[in-house]
Amino acid sequence: MRLWTSAEAAAATGGRATRDWSADGVSIDTRSLAPGDLFVALKDVRDGHDFVAQALEKGAAAALVSRLPEGVDEDAPLLIVDDVLTALQALGRAGRARTRAQVVGVTGSVGKTSAKEMLRVVFGGQGMVHAAEKSFNNHWGVPLTLARMPADADFAVIEIGMNHPGEIAPLSRMARPHAALITTVAPAHLAAFDSVEGIAHEKASIFEGLEPGGLAVVNADLATTPILSASAQRAGARLETFGEGENADHRLREVAVGETTTTARAVSGGAEVLLKVATPGRHFAMNALGVLAVASGVGADPARALCDLATWTPPEGRGTRETLVLDTVDDHLTIDLIDDAFNANPASMSAALDMLASAKPQDGKGRVSRGRRIAILGDMLELGREEARMHADLADLPAMDKVAVVHCVGPLMRHLHDALPEDRRGAWAETAEELATRAHTLADAGDIVLVKGSKSSRVSLVVDAIRKLGHRRATEGEGDR
To answer: 155-171: per-residue pLDDT in tens?
Structure first.
C-alpha cells in the first residue's frame, strides 16, 4: 500500500526530490528495511548516510538525506532536506494531520509498553490499528511512528517516553492524541529529576498535546495523582481515573493471579465487569483497567475490548513466561523462565517480584528436591543520588520472603546482594556476560526463574544463556500452525 509519494513527502518536509518515487513504508535501519521503504538517514551512533547505498541496493524506494551520500549517484531516488531529524518530524506531523484515526497517547514510569500493546489488541478487534513498534517512544520514535501511519487507520497508539525534563510535551503536541493514558508515576530517571513530583509534572505534560475536549486517564492510587489531575483540568480534558481506591471512576475490586492468567472483578462505566489477561501479574490487571477506560472513551466497544484483553500476553522481555524442557528424553524436567529483562526501576522490580512470588515451582524434579523461586536481577539505572539505597531496599520487599535465591548482576546490585540474608544470597557478577557463563549453575529442574534489569545492564544475555539449556515447550495449539 502506498504510504508516501515523492511529491507528498517533499511538500511535508520542504525538501527536494531528485526524481519521482513512492514508498510503502518508512525505515531507519537497513537490517529491518523492506523493499519499497523510504530510508531515513538519521545520525545516531552511526551516520545513516553511510548506509544509504546499502539501503538502495536492498530495494529502498528512496532515501531521506541532507547531502549526497558517498557511493550514491546524483540521479538516485532521494529526498534532500536541510536536516534529516527535522524532516522526519515534519513527515510525522503530516502523517498525523491526514489521518482519520482516533489517536491515543500512552506514557508512565512503568507499564506504558504493555498498555500500548493491550490497546493494539483491543483496537485491532474493532478496526484498523496502527501502533508504535518496540519502544519507539522518543524524539525520533514518535515521529517515525506517525510517519508510518496509514491515512485510513481507525485507531493509533503512540507511546511517549522521556529521560529528561521537557521531552514529553513537544512529542504529545506532535501526536495530538484524542486520549492520553498515564499508567503510573514512580522513581525512574531520577538522575535527571529532583523528585518523583518532578517526574509527575513531566508525565502530566502529555495532556498539553490533547485535542480539544480530549480524554485524560490517570492512575487514582498515587501520591502524585493530584498533580496529574490538575494538569488534565488545566488542559481542558475530560478526566477519568482508574485504581483500587473508592474514588476511582474505574475501580479494581478483586484480583486473582493464576499460573498463566490474571482475573479481576472491576467496576467500569458504572457496570461490574470481569477483567482477564492471559498472563500472571496483578500490575497487568491494573494496566488493563486503564486500557479499558481509554478504549471506551474513544468509542470502542467495551464488551469486545474485554474479550480481546483476555487473549493478551506481554511482549518479549516484558514479563513473558515460557517453559524450557531440559532433557530431550524426559519432558517433565523443566524450568519456567520469566523474561522481564528490558527495563527496571523500583516500582517495576516490585511488580515483577510479586509475579514471581505468586508462581508455583514444582517439587521433586531436579537435583534440589524442592522447586525454588529464583531471581536474577541486574542494575536499575538512572536513579540518581539514592540509587544505592534503592537497590538495597529491594531486600525488604514482602515478595522477597518467597524467593529462595537471588543472583545479582552489576555494581549497583552489589548493594542488594550485601543486604540479602545469607541463605538467599546467590551469585554476584560484575557483568551479565560473566553470569551468563554460569547459567547452568543458577537453576534446576522445577525452578521458576525471573530475570529482570535495565536494558543497559544486558541481563538479556543471561536470558539467552538459560534458554540454551533446553528447548521451549510448544504452547497448546502451536504445533498446528
So the answer is: 999 999 998 999 999 99
Is there a binding annotation on residue 112?
A: yes
What distance in Å separates the CA atoms of residue 261 and residue 133, rounded to the nearest whole number? Answer: 25
351-352-357 Cα angle (round to 5): 95
Q: At residue 100, what is the residue type?
A: R
Q: Which helix (H) or strand (E) holds 145?
A: helix 141-147
Q: Among all chains, which residue has been given the C-alpha cell 493491550? A: 118
- Cβ pair 448, 356 in contact under 8 A: yes
224 is in an annotated binding site: no
- Which of these, 241, 242, 181, 240, lies nearest to 207 by C-alpha position? 181
Helix (H) or strand (E) holding 466: helix 460-467
Q: What is the DSSP letter of 355?
A: H
Vertex 206 angle, CA 156 and 25, to 5°: 30
Residue 367, pLDDT score: 76
- What are the residues facing 239 on neighbouring strands? 216
In this prediction, the residues of the chain whose per-residue pLDDT falls under 70 are 329, 473-481
Cell numbers for 177: 492524541
Q: Spell out the alpha helix ranges (H) of 29-74.
A: 52-57
114 is annotated as contributing to ligand binding = yes
pLDDT tens-digit readout, 204-213: 999 999 999 9
d(CA 56, CA 53): 5
Domains of the chain are 4-83 (3.40.1390.10), 99-309 (3.40.1190.10), 320-472 (3.90.190.20)
Looking at residue 110, its amino acid is V
Measured N-to-C along each axis, helices 168-175 and 84-98 cross at an angle, to the nearest 10 degrees, of: 40
pLDDT of residue 158: 98
Q: Which three cell numbers stand for residue 221?
A: 492510587
pLDDT of residue 1: 77
User: Would the annotation count 108 as a binding residue?
Assistant: yes
Q: Is 229 annotated as a binding residue?
A: no
Say if residues 52 and 39 touch (Cβ distance below 8 Å). Answer: yes
Measured between alpha carbons, how far is 225 from 231 in angstroms, rounded to an integer?
Answer: 10
Q: Does residue 406 contact residue 481 with C-beta atoms inside 8 Å?
A: no
Determine whether 183 is exposed, middle or buried from the number of CB atoms within 10 Å of its CB (0-12, 13-18, 19+).
Answer: buried
Q: Give φ, ψ of 367 to 5 degrees.
A: -65, -35
Q: For residues 141 and 132, is the Cβ–Cβ distance under 8 A?
A: yes
Q: Which long-range CB contacts under 8 A does 47-54 form with residues at least 24 apart?
A: 48/84, 54/30
Residue 293 is predicted with a pLDDT of 97
Position 307 scores a pLDDT of: 97
- Which is it for strands 4-5 and 320-325: parallel, antiparallel or unpaired? unpaired
Angle subtended by helix axes 302-309 and 112-124, to nearest 10: 120
**468 among annotated binding-site residues:** no
